[in-house]
From TrEMBL:
Alphabetized GO MF terms: porin activity
Record's GO cellular component terms: cell outer membrane; pore complex
Gene Ontology terms: biological process: monoatomic ion transport
Organism placement in taxonomy: Bacteria, Pseudomonadati, Pseudomonadota, Betaproteobacteria, Burkholderiales
CDD domains in alphabetical order: gram_neg_porins
Compartments (UniProt record): Cell outer membrane
Residues annotated as signal peptide: 1-22
Membrane topology listed for this record: Multi-pass membrane protein
Stated name of the protein: Porin
Native organism: Pararobbsia silviterrae
């Protein structure tokens, strides 16, 4: 009996060891960003505001990700990531624990397939084509990436392998998955990019369908929002130049139909200190909803590889815009007015 127990324990230990070896990695990671903001015209009465705010430069989040080596160049992968608000400890989306990522997938020599909730193609393919990396004062403020389809649900994404600098990405979101209505909330996205030693170029196409409210019966699934964009970056020594264009069309109007332009520059003063400047413009069709301009200046100083201080200053010159704001996550301002904002804060990544 004793011998049998010892042998059983040894077998169990061997199996556990083999499972542990097969599991390549599981890691906890995140980014914690908080700072103070001063913002003019911060409510419907036109008052200014001063206070702490989370995720000014980089969204605050924590996550768990991992991979298992399956052999032959194949691996199973997963990712669970939740957005958090540092100023009150809450979730950025109280209705969803893992509001940013919740997917499982398979990597292979032929590309990667990810299934579940994740960011859309426009976000993926714009993050490194904006000098602020999509901070709160950034091209996000123009509505280039509509918050309604920032993280499409029920998605399947394919990411190709890198072939001499070229990569392709495609994604389909099944939307609301309502019986009898296969269009409600569906999402289609595709992107192609080239990444050379100093020059990067990418093109993106996205199309989103409207929703079906099963309570009221209001059906906008026959309407669509379509976006096409091209952007490039060029690195010249310590300077990087950014340039982008997007066309927004369709009758769903997650953003007004029109053209979005942006241009920016970053300069690496030293290994720890960098500065940036960015200009953005939204020409709505016929100027029906204005032609707002955004101006952003920023600076980041790294205290260590994981911790940095930042400062941003932004101006929205409204030019007749109806619903635009300086801060993309500002839901208290009335819109339709010019704004000035300043942010100072700290970011720590782990």
């Amino acid at each position: 009996m004793k011998t049998h127990v010892v042998r059983s324990f040894g077998l169990a230990f061997a199996m556990a060891s083999s499972i542990a070896m097969a599991q390549s990695s599981v890691s906890l990671y995140g980014s914690l960003d908080i700072g103070a903001q001063y913002l003019t015209h911060a409510d419907t009465k036109g008052d200014s505001s001063v206070g702490l705010q989370s995720g000014n430069a980089i969204p605050s989040y924590f996550g768990i990700k991992g991979s298992e080596d399956l052999g032959g160049g194949y691996a199973a992968v997963f990712r669970l990531e939740s957005g958090i608000t540092m100023n009150n400890g809450g979730l950025t989306d109280p209705s969803s624990l893992f509001s940013r990522y919740a997917y499982v997938g398979l990597q292979s020599p032929y590309g990667t397939v990810e299934v579940g909730r994740q960011f859309g193609i426009m976000f993926d393919e714009t993050l490194f084509y904006d000098p602020t990396y999509l901070a709160q004062y950034s091209v996000m403020s123009t509505g280039l990436i509509a918050l309604a389809n920032l993280n499409p649900n029920n998605g399947i994404k394919y990411i190709s392998p890198n072939l001499d600098g070229f990569e392709a990405t495609a994604m389909y979101g099944f939307g609301e998955q309502i019986a009898g209505n296969f269009r409600a909330g569906t999402y289609i996205g595709a992107g192609v990019s080239y990444k050379g030693a100093t020059f990067h170029l990418r093109g993106v196409f996205e199309q989103t369908r409207g929703s079906l409210d099963t309570t009221t019966g209001i059906d906008t699934s026959g309407l669509e929002d379509t976006r096409a964009s091209i952007a490039a970056t060029w690195n010249i020594s310590a300077t990087t130049l950014f340039l982008g264009f997007a066309n927004v069309s369709g009758d769903l109007e997650l953003s007004p139909p029109g053209n979005i332009y942006w241009a920016g520059v970053t300069y690496q003063i030293s290994s720890s200190w960098s500065v940036l400047a960015e200009f953005m413009r939204y020409d709505t069709h016929g100027g029906m909803q204005g032609r707002p301009n955004w101006y952003v200046l920023g600076s980041t100083y790294s205290l260590s590889p994981r911790t940095s201080l930042y400062a941003y200053a932004g101006v929205l010159d409204n030019h007749g815009g109806k619903d635009f704001t300086l801060n993309t996550y500002d839901f208290t301002s009335s819109g339709g007015v010019s704004q000035t904002g300043v942010q100072l804060g700290i970011t720590h990544q782990f």
